[in-house]
Amino acid sequence: MMHVYLETYGCQMNVADSELVTAILKSGGCEMAETPELADAILLNTCAVREHAEERIIGRVGELAQHKYERPQVIIGVLGCMAQHLGEDLIKRSRFVDIVAGPDSYRRLPGLLERARAEKALDVRLDRRETYDGITPERADGVTAWLTVQRGCDKCCTFCVVPAVRGRERCIPLADLVLRAEKLAAEGVREITLLGQTVSSYTDGEHDFAALLLELARIPELLRIRFTSPYPTDFSPKLIEAMAKCEKIARHVHLPLQSASDAVLKKARRRYTIADYDAVLQALRAAMPGMAVSTDIIAGFHGEGENEFQETCDYIRKARFDFAFMFKYSRRSRTAAWRWQETVDEETKSRRLKTIIDIQEQISREVQQACVGQTARVLVEGVSKREDGWLFGKTSEFRQVVFEDPAARPGDMVDVKVVGATGHTLIGERAGAAK
Ligand code: SF4
Questions:
Q1: Beta strand residue intervals within 315-424, DSSP E
Q2: Does the pLDDT of residue 432 top 70, yes or no?
Q3: 218 Cβ contact partners less than 8 Å away, ≥ 6 residues apart
């Protein structure tokens, strides 16, 4: 029996894919290893969104190669977006890599592991129909779970490598998702997060995303439903209405902005202007007062001069996001923008990134502080490392809360009085059981 150690990098989609990979490997007769030392095969499930992430993986492969020196039969495999992005070049870049398998090749992993005993194994075929139906991901115990509802992306933003490495958008039928969610609920899951690259554009040909949310909300044991990431202009009035009328749907939306300059948005081939984006943001906040909104912002994309950058700074101040993921633009091959001459130098990108991080961090601190004194409804997720008897969980707005409560258990929904805020965590005191 082959023992496999699996390490995951990148976004939630990769975390969910690793659960899928684990299930496929186990049904193929493998056992999962806790550490690389105990493994016959070491697999890295990777990200290709930024160059830095790829360099990190090459470095990690170099570190893991020590196991090959000690046990030459050890196999090292690279899976996921970076594997798809670099393909055969990955084997050329690192002679220690034995398997290269893209996101649509996971069903064939047991065979690839066998093949890799004798030769390098490469499988980066994209498959427009692969949704991994019939495979139940192998998840760690807990009250929260991912549910992938859509794979691939059809939007083709000029900076983004995802359509090249994850292929065209395809969605899993609503009926299958309901069965999967019911199974998760029966296993004790109380919160699911629906995953898709542009999850709000979900359709199985008959049902849209609003219908999916409402159908899943009918499962009694599920207490909360999240989703990430929606595409801003796929937020139809119908979807906003569905969210507003169903309290189980989390009052948090991650709404990727990227830039607040129309010129930059156009260059990025985002399908909205800043006015369109702002209209969606306002509609969400009007329908669900107090809703938390987070975002993604890129510093230094093509055409971002000082004026365009200031537009983004101004909008961050105006929108007052709860938190944001902010990055310097990283030029990726196999994207439309790859062919363009860069217009912003690295030093300027770094300066701009620091500026927006500073602006946002101040806002995030203020938003956190404003929670002090309020009562928050928290889904308990587990035991906090803070102190004995302390628990942690999240509010509907995706705020992490730690609090002391000897009576509560993971999966309980409890009301917590917020008495303090540190960094990204709220400190609470039990206020009572939620109705
Ligand atoms: S919507 Fe744009 S940024 Fe998001 S995954 Fe698709 S191509 Fe990439």
A1: 323-328, 375-383, 390-395, 400-404, 413-422
A2: no
A3: none
Question: Hey, do 3-123 and 372-433 end up sharing a CATH topology, with the first three levels equal?
Answer: no
Determine whether the shortest distance from the Cβ of 153 to ligand 1 is under 6 A: yes
Instruction: Tell me the C-alpha distance between 302 and 268, whole Å.
Output: 8
Residues 371 and 107: their CA atoms lie apart, in Å, by 46
Q: Residues 6 or more apart from 1 whose CB is under 8 A from it?
A: 29, 30, 31
Among residues 71, 170, 157, the alpha carbon closest in space to that of 117 is found at 71
The structural architecture, per CATH, of the domain 3-123 is 3-Layer(aba) Sandwich (3.40)
CA of 162 to the centre of ligand 1 (A): 6
pLDDT tens digit string along 51-73? 888 999 999 999 999 999 999 99
CA 97 to CA 272: how far, in whole Å? 41
pTM: 0.95
State how far the Cα of 128 lies from the Cα of 137, in Å rounded to an integer: 20
**Residue 146 CB less than 6 A away from ligand 1:** no
If you measure from the C-alpha of residue 143 to the centroid of ligand 1, how many angstroms do you get, rounded to a whole number?
29
Cβ-count burial of 254 within 10 angstroms (0-12 exposed, 13-18 middle, 19+ buried)?
Answer: buried
Please state the domain extents for the chain.
Answer: 3-123, 372-433
pLDDT for position 387:
83
Domain 372-433, CATH class in plain words: mainly beta
**Peptide bond preceding 200 in cis form (omega within 30 of 0):** no
Report how far residue 98's alpha carbon sits from residue 41's, in angstroms, rounded to the nearest whole number. 10
Q: Which two tokens stand for residue 89?
A: 């070049």
User: Distance from the CA of 154 to the center of ligand 1, in angstroms?
Assistant: 8
Copy the structure tokens of residue 407.
């009576």
Q: What share of the chain is helix, strand, coil (3-state, %, to 5)?
A: 40, 25, 40
CA–CA separation, 131 and 149 (whole Å): 9
